[in-house]
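Hi all, posting the design record for the shared folder.

TITLE: backbone redesign
STEP: 1 of 1
STRUCTURE INPUT:
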């Protein structure tokens, strides 16, 4: 039987923080890379999306942020309409620029 990722309360809580950090960090990204694509409509770093409530997905996203490695967008397509995960990196927050609560 296949394992299905499902939304969870823990996922929503973690997702809220990652989205907040991405919202805070995005202006810094725009200063250094103005042409960087915006977060897609189903981005794990966008509050309220399904991936933003999947604890498993968000743990991978958080690991990428901590290790400063790319978290590739799942929704980007190449010229032929085929998925190309190497094309775009989702906006990653810069921890040095974040306000701590």
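Okay, here is what came back for every position:
SEQUENCE:
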């Amino acid at each position: 039987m296949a394992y299905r990722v499902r939304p969870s309360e823990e996922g929503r809580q973690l997702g809220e923080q990652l989205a907040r950090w991405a919202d805070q960090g995005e202006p810094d990204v725009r200063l250094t890379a103005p042409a960087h694509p915006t977060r897609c409509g189903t981005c794990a770093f966008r509050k309220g999306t399904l991936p933003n409530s999947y604890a498993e997905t968000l743990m991978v996203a958080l690991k990428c942020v901590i290790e400063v490695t790319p978290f590739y967008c799942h929704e980007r397509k190449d010229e032929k309409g085929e998925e190309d995960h190497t094309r775009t990196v989702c906006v990653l927050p810069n921890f040095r620029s974040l306000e701590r609560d």
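COMMENT: The longest helix spans residues 9-32.
Let me know if anyone wants the other runs.
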